[in-house]
Amino acid sequence: MKVKSLRALALVASLACLASAAAHADAFDAHITIRADRPGAVINPNIYGQFVEHLGRGVYEGIWVGPDSPIPNTRGIRNDVVAALRKIRIPLVRWPGGCFAETYHWRDAIGPREKRPRGVNTAWGDETESNHFGTHEFMDFIEQVGAQPFISVNVASGTPAEAQAWMQYLTGPASSGAGQERARNGRTEPWKIPFIGIGNETWGCGGNMTAEFYSDVYRQYVSVLKPYGSMIASDANSDDYAWTETFLTRALFRHPPETSTTLAYISKQRQIDMISVHFYTFSGNDWGKKSPAVGFDELDWVRSMERTWKTDAMIAGHSAILDRHDPKGQVGISFSEWGAWWATDKNRPSNLYQANTLRDAVIAGLTLNIFQNHAARVKMANLAQMVNVLQALILTDKEKMLLTPTYHVFDLYQGHQGATLLPTEVEAPEYSFEGVKVPALSVSASRAAGGEVTLSLVNLDPVRDAKIDIDVQGRVVRAAKGRMMTAASMDARPEFDRPDPLQPSAARSVSVRRGVVSLVAPAKSVTVLQLH
Ligand code: AHR
Predict the structure, then answer these.
(1) What residues are annotated to the active site?
(2) Candidate of 94, 203, 205, 290 to mutate for ligand 1, largest count of ligand atoms within 8 Å of Cβ
(3) Lowest mean pLDDT: which of 28-37, 253-262, 311-320, 345-354?
(4) Taking the CA atoms of the chain, what radius of gyration do you get in angstroms?
(5) Using one digit for the tens of pLDDT, what is the confidence trace for 465-484?
């Protein structure tokens, strides 16, 4: 009975979604110019990176099922999830957290699994942490996917010595003591750790620090971790520009300005490879009043788009500070946590699990376009989180797996990976609803080494199609084709054991005449074209 009434409620909510989106349907016109004559920075493949934390079923079930599981696996790691990630060329995975990383002691999760101590995940609901997925299992997973590891070390409850010992264990030659211990645990050859995160949200769960205090803590960690990989600083909270300003002033170089005369040479050694930013989308700006993941209305939709667009201004704000401190552009931005965070569903199967709809796809397309368009500074990003948590790429239900609308966007955007950004000029109206206004169209273009131009277009307007003309300056276009995703309702979503309503299909009404490309980007859609 309860199930039935819940279904009825869901049906009413879906109809509301459909009704508001189908109210009126005049298309709007838009014009895009792609400046192939003014190529920009290379789009770093790492901006399509992922984030995995010990939280809900993000690791356990989502990745790790154990070697004895009936779910097909390789050394305990799910084969279906690995295959799906390989297909979209996931370049990078950040682990073990998040706030969890700030409680994590890596030694608890090495050696024979049956002997590892059980812990309590105090960061996330006091759930039991078996420690069965530790350093070796994560690195095995990384190698199976063909990705790079980004390890976030514990700053809040750990020490520089603990972090240094972890790096020695991971990367030390087999002849070293740490390497011998690693070999006894099954791995002779050292691993490479290209990216090391020095703490997570150190303004909050990662130590509750001020920017001044964190700068000094960072300096201490870097002094022992620098030999092992690129140094990624803990994030500024969203648009906390004061944090970035203070941190760069105090920590960019090996010694702060006041001591630089005595140690002039080493003082100038740069010790930050990337600063980070964390920012989540919900509808509006109030963490306490989030939109539901499904059954939302158009006001929730437009507010979610408005909040996602803030990513653009936020990157510009942090970049402007970087430009002053680092005019040569050597320090990148790692957008280490991004994605949609919807209201808690009481019936969710695990912590921070949420449904993933067409709205998530539009948010993903818009966010990736923004990252790409800031390719000169944004060198890495991590979707929160890869499997079963928040805006996931993949959802699982025991042996079942589904690919979310967000996954399809990452798939469609593959042509941008490692390509050269081409600036775009967009003439399009705003989409406005109940006084909230946002640009209706988000666009990003790039050229691959072989010459193919990829253009990603997101129509944020949930009601009106966009009739778009595109001209490319500095290049003659003869052919265009592409794929797109949309659906009738704003909260259309895939469900286990049902056909996927958001499976990408051929882009709509694409033609090329005298070098001008035309197409229709349907209301609430993500389209990616390849131009030849
Ligand atoms: O992604 C979930 C949590 O969000 C992370 O653990 C934390 O860093 C952020 O607040």
Answers:
(1) 201, 337
(2) 205
(3) 253-262
(4) 23
(5) 999 999 999 999 999 999 99
Residues 6+ apart with CB under 8 A from 331: 248, 252, 270, 272, 273, 274, 275, 322, 325
SS (H, E, C) 68-107: CCCCCEECCEEHHHHHHHHHCCCCEEEECCCHHHHHCCHH
Which residues lie below 8 Å from residue 242, measured CB to CB, with a gap of 6+?
211
CA distance 458 to 461: 9
Give residue 133 CA to ligand 1 midpoint distance, Å.
Answer: 19
In whole angstroms, give the CA distance from residue 495 to residue 487: 14
In the reported structure, the alpha carbon of residue 187 is separated from the centroid of ligand 1 by a whole-number distance in angstroms of 31
Tokens 């376009």 sit at which residue? 369
Main-chain phi, psi angles of 37, to 5 degrees = -85, -5
pLDDT tens readout for residues 41-80: 999 999 999 999 999 999 999 999 999 999 999 999 999 9
Rounded Cα distance, 125 and 120, in Å: 9
Are 145 and 93 contacting, i.e. CB atoms less than 8 angstroms apart? yes
Backbone dihedral angles phi then psi of residue 359, each to the nearest 5 degrees:
-60, -40
CA 110 to chain centre: 28
Helix, strand, or coil here: 236? strand
User: Could you tell me how many residues make up the chain?
Assistant: 532
